[in-house]
Amino acid sequence: MSCQVSGFHATHMRLRGMIRKEWLQILRDPSSLAIAFILPLVLLLLFGYGVSLDARHIPLALVVEQPDAQTASLTGAFERSDYFTPTRFSNIQAAQLALKTHQVDGIVWLRNNFGCCLLAGDNAAIGVIVNGVNANQARITEGYIQGVWQTWLQNQSNAEGRDLPIPVTLEHRIWFNPAMRSQDFLIPGLIAVIMTLTGALLTAMVVAREWERGTMEALMVTPIRIWEILIGKLIPYFVLGMGGMLLTVAMARWQFDVPLRGSFWTLLGSSALFMLVALGMGLLISILAKSQFVAGQVAIIVTFLPAFLLSGFIFDISSMPTAVQAITHLVPARYFVAILQTLFLAGDIWPLVLANSSALLLISLIFLVLIKYKARKRLD
User: Fold this and answer.
1) Between the N and C ends of the chain, which has fewer C-beta atoms within 10 Å?
2) Is residue 330 in some structural domain?
């Protein structure tokens, strides 16, 4: 019994010494602090303010061939809209030239019989030409134009005291993101991307730095076991990574006004699980690549790019080809993005949270097995 206690005490002392050594190294080399706190801050501000799926101030050409009260009212509706920045053109040829030279993204064309047809109760056609190079932007522009037209038509019918000849009335409701702010959708996913990058870089770069500086060889000749080295390195960087996560969540909540409808403790638990996955990826990279340059490049290519492109952060997974959809199941950020978007926008939807958390747990176990297989206390 005394031997077991003595062995446990020795393990405890070695592990505590390893953790203390890592904290001292972090304090002496501020690059780890920069990766944990400065990098998430910069990325969140850059993507939070710079990336948006909302279209605002779309340059729009207004062509009115015969001005009258009706055309003035309709063009005024476009000019008052926050979605458009209209420019008036006297003829369609000048507007088409502006569209070809990318001065405008769309044209609204009111022909010379628009006002007469409208007063007579006939079909008053509106010509709409949209730049379709960016298909998504074209659909958004077309939808905004239709929205302005329908709102104006409804106001006209109310002012004249007559009903619109529309047989169907649409009552729409938008769940989870009623304001339709793209930031509410993007920022939760961005937290997953940031945690992927910072978690992988924290362990990949710092362990590779030890190989380059020769301090890893000094550890190898001590009585400390390999698993004690790994745990001693994971714990400090896990704390740093979770600190960076709390910073990004605080900014999402109070800087960008993204609602958190789920439980904070559920968010904390799932984030801790994902941070283990991210640190495991970085640690495995550092074991395989003992150069800081190689480890950094591999970490970006293997972790950040798949998390950015294949996690559902921006691009809808269901719209991807079947083969690419299958590949996304290998990307840990896919599951964490789903958890974050659910917790922030919908709440504690336990079937979804538990299913994705189980996937993260399985991936973390796979990384731990690979690390145990690859990590050896040897210099070769």
Assistant:
1) C
2) yes
